[in-house]
Amino acid sequence: MGKLTRCLGAAALIALLASIQTESALAVPFDIGCGGQVDIDTDPPTLAACSVGSLGAINDLTVSLEIDDPAGFAYVSDLEIILTNDSTGISVVLYLGGQTATPEAYMDATFDDAAAALAPTSGNVIGSYLPVDALSAFDGVQLSGDWTLSLHDLTSWTNEGLDLISWRLVGDQVPEPATALLLAIGLSGIAAAGRRRNGLGGPPE
Fold it and tell me: Model pTM?
């Protein structure tokens, strides 16, 4: 009876690990602030770096950006904004403005594959929008490491004083296999202790 119980426990552990790997059963959220940077409407692009220490593979990713000009001359429609994972070289275009003379406009936006529409290419960019390229390109990529936000003014009117107030990487990640294994073993141990307390573990051999 003891061997059977242990075999059943091992089978349950294997099934749990398979669930972790294939169904993101233990995906955990992250919200990483990457700070800000001044004078980002430049040619060549301004590069804003974000170093991430959290371990795990990305299961879902959104990016939040706030861009404004404290002096009152914000023209976000001049910009092309690209996010790159430095370890893999994968790049995603988040926003591409119309590069036309438009009324003063700023950005306070979240780029999300689940949004309903692309961001406007002129005027204020406020709310949740589809990125130009899908952020799902980063699914399965390790969250840890260096990320770079490229902000490029594509017009001839550069250096007008736009500031990147803040940017964030938000989403959820699947823990590293070793971490998931430890968690699964812990859960298995808790279940085994419960069986022993209830007299279901069988007599020792």
Answer: 0.75
Residues with Cβ within 8 Å of residue 185, at least 6 apart in sequence: 13
Which of 190-196's residues contact partners 24+ apart within 8 Å by CB, and which partners?
Answer: 191/9, 191/12, 192/9, 195/5
The secondary structure of the chain as a DSSP string is -HHHHHHHHHHHHHHHHHHHHHH-TT-EEEEEE---BS---BSSPEEEEEEE---SEEEEEEEEEEEE-TTS--BGGGEEEEEEETTT--EEEEEE---S--S-B-EEEEE-TTSSSBPPSSS-EEEEEB-SS-GGGGTTSBSSEEEEEEEEE-SS---S--EEEEEEEEEEEEPPHHHHHHHHHHHHHHHHHHHHHTT-S----
- The 10s digit of each residue's pLDDT in 121-146 is 988 999 999 999 999 999 999 999 99
Q: How wide is the angle at C-alpha 158 spanned by C-alphas 155 and 72, nearest 5°?
A: 110
Average pLDDT, the chain: 81
- Nearest Cα to 170, choosing from 193, 147, 150? 147
- Domain 27-173 listed as CATH 3.30.43.10: no
Comma-separated ranges of CATH 2.60.120.260 domains in the chain: 27-173
